[in-house]
Structure formats: structure tokens, C-alpha cells
């Protein structure tokens, strides 16, 4: 459960800094090394949340970290090594199939990206930019998003692969196919009992799976011009997410902290999943390369702060 980060620039013969090591230790709920398989990561992070979604709790899984550390691989995976998206949906459908006698289910999913603070539908990229709206019950909706309802994991895999090709990817100095946007897969499970009762209750559980854009510093990517602006937008939304996480983790105590979810589209969309009726997992990715020591350190600090959030489910 422990990550020890060694500083590559440390010189063992430096007498002045002999007692001041920059070695940092972080403790998390779960730590995976380079040998961990997709299956292991999925079972220990996400599998336990699926039952909750079916019984009406929200769940959110974040993949966070600098570019090139494997966020998209963890979430989407490859054909032979599918990632969390597919495994989670597979489990969801299997569990739903087992309980079809008593309940009627509908599962709908949408896949979108947030790029430069605008929302694009990845399943129907021609629809242009979409708006976030609030419905009378106070939940956030995206006007005009394509919703697909299917209970076949294979079909979904094809949809996601197709959608992922529509994502805004640009080569940067840090990674050849760097995703420059946050991709959000939103799965909504609604269920109602088959026995007709007078008070017909409908349970809704939402599962958000978010593949965030790379959190590296601009110097690392050597971006100029448009890429630079884009990186600023990415970092702004990650900062907004960080601010919400900070405010939420400082909530216990006497002074009530104001959580500003409206700072970015991402936090506004995930409002219920961060502070509300939800269980949240953050999978932080770091690179073992010594060149990305700073990035790894920032990522671990960020994820470590997120660990302090206490939500009431």
C-alpha cells in the first residue's frame, strides 16, 4: 500500500544535503506495480462498486496522471486486454441478467469529451458543441447527447473504440498520441419493480468513468501556441477538480467550506459523483522514468489529497 518516490537528482556525496532527502512516501488503499494485470486493477478498484450502482448509488472512477502513463490503457484497454470500461459493463450486465425476474431494467450510456471547456459527443461527433443544462430536480443533463441502450458488451466495445478514435489527440513532446481532452463514459441504470405497486419507485444509479487529460506541466510537453492554450484549459479544469477535492476533504471541522463545482464543465458534470450520494475511486498513474519525477510527485500529492474526501452515501 506504500509508494516511495526517490529523487533522481540526489547526489549521495553531497554533504550539505546529507540529512535532507527528497524521498517521499505516500500511503494509498492499493498500490500496483508494473506487473499488475488489467484484471487485478479492475477487481481491486471497481468491481465492488457495480453492485452499488444497481442498488441506486452513484459511482465514479477517475484515471488521473501525466500523459503517457497509461490512463487510456487502464480505462479502455486493447482488444485482447480490455480495460475498466468493458469489464465494468460486462459485470453490470451479468448482474442485471441474474435479477431480471423481479425488476425491469434499462441501461443507457453516453460517451463524451470535454475539450477546451466545450462538450463534444464522441458517439455522434457531427452534432457540434453541446450545452450543460439543469433539470427541475437539480440534476445536470447534457442537451442533445446521444444515449445508447444495449446490453451487449461487445457492441459497446466497438462503440467505445470508435468513439475513442474521435477524441482530440495531438502529438506532444511527452507522448505521440496524447489525449488532449477528458473523456467521460456515463452509464445510467434505471430499474423498477415488476410487481405493480401503488407507489411506483424508480431507482437510478449512475456510473461515471472518466479518463482525464494528461496533467503534465507545459515545460514537459514543449508546447507552443495552440497546444499551450489547450494545456492551460486542461490544467484549469484539473485545478478546478483539485479545488473541489480540497474543499470536500476540508469539510469536516467547524468552518463549512464552499465547494465551487461551477468552475469547470467537468466538475459541474461530476457534482453528484464527487460530493453527493456516490462512491469514488481515483486511479493515479505515474511513470517510473526519472525525467518525470516532478509530475509523479504532483500526481501522488493530488491523489493523496483526494483520499481525504469523506462522502455520505
TrEMBL record:
Sites where the protein binds ATP: 65-72
Protein's recorded name: Kinesin-like protein
Q: Which GO terms describe its biological process?
A: microtubule-based movement
Name the protein family: Belongs to the TRAFAC class myosin-kinesin ATPase superfamily. Kinesin family.
State one molecular function term (GO): microtubule binding
Keyword line? ATP-binding, Cell projection, Cilium, Coiled coil, Cytoplasm, Cytoskeleton, Microtubule, Motor protein, Nucleotide-binding
The organism's taxonomy opens as: Eukaryota, Metazoa, Chordata, Craniata, Vertebrata
Q: Which GO terms describe its cellular component?
A: cilium; microtubule
Q: Does the keyword GTP-binding apply?
A: no
Source organism of the structure:
Podilymbus podiceps
SUPFAM superfamilies assigned: P-loop containing nucleoside triphosphate hydrolases
Gene3D superfamilies from the xrefs? Answer: Kinesin motor domain
Matching CDD domains, A to Z?
A: KISc_KIP3_like
* Subcellular location, record wording: Cell projection, Cilium; Cytoplasm, Cytoskeleton
InterPro entries (UniProt xref): Kinesin-like_fam, Kinesin_motor_CS, Kinesin_motor_dom, Kinesin_motor_dom_sf, P-loop_NTPase
Q: Pfam families, from UniProt?
A: Kinesin (PF00225)
- Report the protein's function: Plus end-directed microtubule-dependent motor protein that regulates the length of motile cilia by mediating depolymerization of microtubules at ciliary tips.
Amino acid at each position: 500500500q506504500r509508494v516511495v518516490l526517490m529523487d533522481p537528482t540526489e547526489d549521495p556525496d553531497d554533504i550539505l544535503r546529507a540529512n535532507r532527502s527528497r524521498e517521499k512516501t505516500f500511503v494509498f488503499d492499493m498500490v500496483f506495480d508494473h506487473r499488475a494485470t488489467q484484471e487485478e486493477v479492475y477487481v481491486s478498484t471497481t468491481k465492488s462498486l457495480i453492485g452499488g450502482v444497481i442498488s441506486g448509488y452513484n459511482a465514479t472512477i477517475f484515471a488521473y496522471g501525466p500523459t503517457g502513463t497509461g490512463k487510456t490503457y487502464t480505462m479502455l484497454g486493447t482488444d485482447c486486454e480490455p480495460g475498466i470500461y468493458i469489464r465494468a459493463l460486462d459485470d453490470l450486465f451479468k448482474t442485471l441478467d441474474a435479477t431480471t425476474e423481479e425488476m425491469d431494467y434499462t441501461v443507457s450510456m453516453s460517451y463524451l469529451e470535454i475539450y477546451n471547456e466545450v462538450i463534444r459527443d464522441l458517439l455522434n461527433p457531427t452534432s457540434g458543441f453541446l450545452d450543460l443544462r439543469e433539470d427541475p430536480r437539480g440534476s445536470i443533463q447534457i442537451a442533445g447527447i446521444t444515449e445508447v441502450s444495449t446490453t451487449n458488451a461487445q457492441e459497446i466495445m466497438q462503440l467505445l473504440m470508435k468513439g475513442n478514435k474521435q477524441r482530440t489527440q495531438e502529438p506532444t513532446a511527452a507522448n505521440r498520441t496524447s489525449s488532449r481532452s477528458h473523456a467521460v463514459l456515463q452509464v445510467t441504470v434505471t430499474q423498477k419493480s415488476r410487481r405493480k405497486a401503488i407507489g411506483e419507485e424508480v431507482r437510478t444509479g449512475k456510473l461515471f468513468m472518466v479518463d482525464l487529460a494528461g496533467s503534465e506541466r507545459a515545460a514537459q510537453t514543449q508546447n507552443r501556441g495552440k497546444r499551450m492554450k489547450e494545456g492551460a484549459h486542461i490544467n484549469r479544469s484539473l485545478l478546478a477538480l483539485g479545488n473541489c477535492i480540497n474543499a470536500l476533504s476540508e469539510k469536516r471541522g467547524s468552518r463549512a467550506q464552499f465547494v465551487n463545482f461551477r468552475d469547470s464543465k467537468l466538475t459541474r458534470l461530476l457534482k453528484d459523483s464527487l460530493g453527493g450520494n456516490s462512491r469514488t475511486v481515483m486511479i493515479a498513474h505515474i511513470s517510473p522514468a526519472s525525467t518525470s519525477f516532478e509530475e509523479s510527485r504532483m500526481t501522488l500529492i493530488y491523489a493523496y489529497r483526494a483520499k481525504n474526501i469523506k462522502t455520505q452515501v
